[in-house]
Design goal:
267 residues, alpha/beta, Rossmann fold, 8-stranded mixed β-sheet
Length: 267
Amino acid sequence: MPHAKVRDGTNIYYESHGDESLPGLVLIRGTGADGTRWLPQVRAYESEIRCVIFDGRGVGRSETTPPPYSVAGMAGDTFDLMDALGIGAAHLSGSSLGGAIGLRMAVDAPERVLSLQMHSSWLGTHGFSEFSLGLLKAHLTSGGVEHYYAATMPMLISPGFMSRNFEMLMNILDHMRANAASYDGLLGQIEANLSYDMRAEAHNVSAPVLVTVGEVDVVLPVQCSEEIHEAIGGSDFHVFEGAGHLSGMESPDEFNRVTLDWLRRQL
């Protein structure tokens, strides 16, 4: 299994899909989610762009280090992974925490970020986002990792989709538990969420940006993505009708079409 060693010696699991001579797209997953959750997108993208997916620090097949973690630190992990794969600059696509990591990267090293997609993400933890992300920590600390993945599912997925696809989602829950973050990894990533704030810096992003969100996201609602869109001049914005926090899962055909059409314009 391929691993890359980042600067503090931590081993990060990754996969590279598509022709390595193509431009690179690094896909960054959200809190406690392993990189395989991007595979529906990879299958749609890989004929046109090299796709790199990975398990973040503390998740799946990557190594766990003691918390706390930070968004800036995980941005550093992603740059180190790019270095290990010989990728000088890449397109980035991040979901939730992954979007925050991508934004940090776009501000810290603009020459290395060719474009940025932020899906179901946010600009800084305050107000409602502080409350909702605090619930993630409460689920983990009160019930442990097994409880966390089950208890957060109704927060991540719209009720209609969950009712129509219940058996499939129970299989996905099994997959999530089989590729779970460790307790320390989940705690570290959640604490990175809670300390994250790019409100004073987001206007410095120079790369093209696409912001998307599910219409009925209850973790980071539409208003959170609107705040990103308003802060980053010239960014594009799309709402997936009827979808929750995991719009790439609930509306995969529309998600892949919107994101790939936008990405083609940046290649």
